[in-house]
Amino acid sequence: MLKHAAICDRLCMFSGTWLIKLFHWHYSVFVCHIEIMPPARKKSRLDELVSLRARLPFISQSALSAILKIATTEGLPKITTRRGVRQARDNFARITTPHGPLHTHIDVTDSVTIEVQNPFAVFWYACKTSASFSSLVAATLASHPSSPASQWSLVLYCDEVSPGNQLAYTHDRKAWAVYWSFGEFGSHLCQEACLNSNTNSNNNNNNNINNNIENNVITVITRIVMPATPNIAVMTHNNNVQIY
Questions:
Q1: Which of 36, 57, 84, 202 is deepest in the core (most CB within 10 A)?
Q2: Burial code of 201-221, b = ≥16 C-beta within 10 A, e = fewer?
Q3: pTM above 0.85, yes or no
């Protein structure tokens, strides 16, 4: 009996060691499997993303990524139609500020009226609603104080833009855009957030305007910027300041 018990103990010890070795072997294979092949769940999610993008109109990767992040953290608006998107845009453009509405209309010719941005109204609204832009204005004022004797400089930039698919056969929505900002922003002008789009005109409907874009820019300056007050009151970090 004792001899038989000793043999059983040796077998148990051997079996335990073998089981441990077998466990380590399976564990190492499992770890290697994770490192070499992505989980099936991740592959499924990637397939879903590819399917989603294939069903959407053209959209850049950065734009799609931003939308997906917002959808995950904040949810999406309930309105999904193009008409609803257009109404939301038009309502935003009609927001009123101490310097007038965000958008206004000017007559470029006797027969053509274009919608343009109201520069001082948009600047006031940006300072009020954007903490980062307000910080930029406050920092610029600290390094470049603005006064009647030391006024800020206005910078204009014109460019032709083509919204939509750049590979389309025709570009019916191609338009001219005029951007503006302040020269005192310095290197920050390289960032699109520091540029404001003032006006655009469609090439197809306003060919007589686009053939002489210089007059269009002059019209914007003389009818929007020049008649305005020589200074603008804005709020930066809860401080009311004047910019000349």
A1: 202
A2: bebeebeebbeeeeebbebbb
A3: no
* Residue 125 CB neighbours (<10 A): 20
The strands making up 113-117's β-sheet, listed across from edge to edge, are 103-107, 113-117, 196-202, 175-182, 154-161
Amino acid in the structure at residue 238: N
Helix (H) or strand (E) holding 131: helix 131-143
User: What b-and-e string marks burial along 86-107, b requiring 16 or more CB atoms within 10 Å of the CB?
Assistant: eeeeeeeeeeeeebeebbeeee
* Longest alpha-carbon distance in the chain: 118
Tokens of 74: 């904040």
* Residue 35: count of CB within 10 angstroms of its CB: 8
Can you name the residues that pair with 202 across neighbouring β-strands?
Answer: 175
User: 211, 216, 224: which is closest to 200 by C-alpha?
Assistant: 216
CA 79 to each of CA 43, 95, 164, 207: distance values in angstroms, whole numbers, following the listed order: 31, 20, 22, 35
Residue 155 CA, chain-centre distance (Å), reads 22
Residue 233: partners with Cβ closer than 8 Å, 6 or more residues away: 98, 124, 240, 241, 242
Whether 156 and 178 have beta carbons less than 8 Å apart is answered as yes
Q: pLDDT tens digits for 66-77?
A: 999 999 999 989
Q: What is the pLDDT of residues 85-123, one digit of tens each?
A: 999 999 999 999 988 899 988 877 777 777 888 888 889
